[in-house]
Amino acid sequence: MREVAIPRVGHLSNAPDEMFQHERIARGPGMAETKITALKRGAQSSAFSLPEKAALRFTDDVVADVPAGDAGFAAAAQFLSPRQRVERNLTVGYCMLTCRLLESFAVTIEPEGVTQGRKLKR
Question: What total of structural domains would you count in the chain?
């Protein structure tokens, strides 16, 4: 469920590099292209399972508001233990930080196969 949450944070944070990198990672274990496309629509999409929809609702709530809303916590509680919810919240928060860092310094997407590092534009 983490690989639906991380690119969703990228989308909600308007961070194309984060989306690109984590959509690519999600393809590794075989996430269907329909799900990757549906990440932009979030939990409203029929492409996701109930646990994935709960993860997306929780992610949306954590990104949108502090504290996250009761609906997101209730949805996540159906599928995640309290410890897993804490870990998910930390993951989403870290992802938000990463998105803000990437966008603040105008870090660009690497060409395919390039892993030598990126040049900051700012």
Answer: 1
